[in-house]
Amino acid sequence: MRSLPDILEEYEFLDGDERYRLLIELGRELDPMPPALRTDATLVRGCSASVWVYPTGDAGKLHFLADSNAAITKGIVALVIAAIQDRPAAEVADTDILDRLAPFDLKNQLSSNRTQGVPNMIALVREHATRIAGGA
Q1: How many CA atoms lie within 13 A of 82 on its CB side?
Q2: Exposed, middle or buried by CB within 10 Å (0-12, 13-18, 19+), for 128?
Q3: Which residues, including other chains, have CB under 8 Å from residue 106's CB and lie 6 or more apart?
Q4: Residues acting as catalytic residues
Q5: What is the predicted pLDDT for the residue at 26?
Q6: What domains does the chain contain, in order, with CATH numbers?
Q7: If you count Cβ atoms within 10 Å of the first and of the last residue's Cβ in the chain, which end, N or C, has fewer?
């Protein structure tokens, strides 16, 4: 998976439809999520599309699997994951993911129904990280 700074560098050179294409491409690059993990327990609430996030790894290195039934939403999930992928659980729990995504200006780039679930995605990721780090 590409790093968030690498994605941002490419994103800044693009506009409009090209940014959508990049998000779709990022979604396709996510590690495949086995259908058995797409359950009610891994479902992110409040998203207009279905989004699933599942943590793997341990407190030392947290790795997330994610999926969505909508291509652009899956790309947004990929951005969220890129901000924290393969980092220690305690670091993920303390990361201001919204701040790390701020340069992408998603609220102005995408429709509100595409971005409304982002805080819920972030909350679920941080909740998983806190639990795995031993804080819950």
Answers
A1: 22
A2: buried
A3: 76, 79, 115, 118
A4: 47
A5: 97
A6: 4-133 (3.90.1010.10)
A7: C
